[in-house]
Amino acid sequence: MYRAVTATLSFASLVLGQQIGKEVAEKHPTMPMKMCTAAGSCTTESTSVVLDSNWRWTHVTNGYANCFGGEGWNATHCADNAACAKNCAIDGANYASTYGITTPSSGALRLNFVTKNDNGQNVGSRVYLLASDTKYRTFNLLNKEFTFTVDVSKLTCGLNGAVYFSEMDADGGMSRFTGNKAGAAYGTGYCDAQCPRDIKFINGEANVAGWKDGTGGMGSCCAEMDIWEANNDATAYTPHPCNVFEQTKCTGTDCGVGDDRYKAMCDKDGCDFNSFRMGNKEFYGPGKTVDTTKPVTVITQFHTADGTDSGALSSIHRFYVQGGKVVANSVSAIPGVDAVSHISDQFCAQQKTAFGDNNYFATLGGMQAMGKSLKRMVLVLSIWDDTSVRMNWLDSVFPNDADPEKPGVARGRCDPMLGEPKTVEKDHADAYVVYSDIRFGAINSTFAAN
């Protein structure tokens, strides 16, 4: 796939704008990380986090009227994509009071699920790691490992505390799209393998045309590496390759909506390793081998065929550290799938066959394509609930009408209805996740591999 650029679109980008408001000062919460070259040899980087632009107050540039609110876009100021981008701005964020985003200690970040505020309440959040106030911290994951500690003890069924990488532009898209005036400093440029269409501004354009039930006519696609999607009952890590290798706007079939799922630019299913789904129901959860009532350190390694930072991605491995002990990932116990604990092209092919799933992962290039994208990734940390399918794909029976005894259908112990957003937001408004101690570096440099 490629992006077609016409003279009309090029001209339009000059007059559109994702502009900056001046009503709320933007101050990025600090979240330092460590870069490691060998075990015990790490240096601290002065990184911080920035709130995604989609969560921000969007208002007219010359006043306080909302451009976007509970009823959708303001028809007066947002008659079309161009007018809306010209008339509207995103503003700074009060991280703690409005969004429940705090830094309880150095190197730690707490994301609250529901936060009561002056405007009602905020549900969930998504932030990105910054290298500076105007640039995201980018990562080449090849031949490296990424480590962090997480507390998911308060994340119930239907919730997801997610840590992942997306192939976003380091500046949030400012240099490629002159209509984007806000950039990484205000959390712009988001994309992932689901090609989300709920993004309000894409490439400096407002996503007004075709907006209905929370989605517009455009989506924002890019490769995604899910390091950690989890609550206290289930977890999975999943590569999602694409046939594009930068943040790319989609429309129509390329977004993969409905029956076009396997025609999309990106592999929405990915190739997941969920220990419960792979046959070990005692590995992860409260009181299990990896005990989710306590914080756990999560290590993900990206091995290349030749052991270099530019080599072809060959496999993705997982380890945990809890209570001072290193815990190897569970191994597959599914008939027809080798008893391995890592993701590779062979594992994915066997798993898709055993579960009767479409191997769109291989269609879009598998590990080779994923490896190409892993050279320039942006770190994302979030907490969210699922308005589409109640997070059943992570922690319950999915599809709901399938036989839970069929291989691949059961992903966790949760009742399918427990993930209903209205239920979760009412009964578990006090849920939160804490991420801390991010480390990145050479294989076996970020934890004691004993």
Automatic annotation (TrEMBL):
It comes from the Eukaryota. Its EC number is 3.2.1.-. GO terms for biological process: cellulose catabolic process. InterPro entries: ConA-like_dom_sf, Glyco_hydro_7, Glyco_hydro_7_sf. It holds the Pfam family Glyco_hydro_7. Residues 1-17 form the signal peptide. The keyword Lyase does not apply. One of its GO terms (molecular function) is cellulose 1,4-beta-cellobiosidase activity. Gene3D superfamilies: Glycoside hydrolase, family 7, domain. Keywords: Carbohydrate metabolism, Cellulose degradation, Glycoprotein, Glycosidase, Hydrolase, Polysaccharide degradation, Signal. It catalyses: Endohydrolysis of (1->4)-beta-D-glucosidic linkages in cellulose, lichenin and cereal beta-D-glucans; Hydrolysis of (1->4)-beta-D-glucosidic linkages in cellulose and cellotetraose, releasing cellobiose from the non-reducing ends of the chains. Belongs to the glycosyl hydrolase 7 (cellulase C) family. This is Glucanase. It comes from Schizothecium vesticola. The lineage of its organism: Eukaryota, Fungi, Dikarya, Ascomycota, Pezizomycotina.
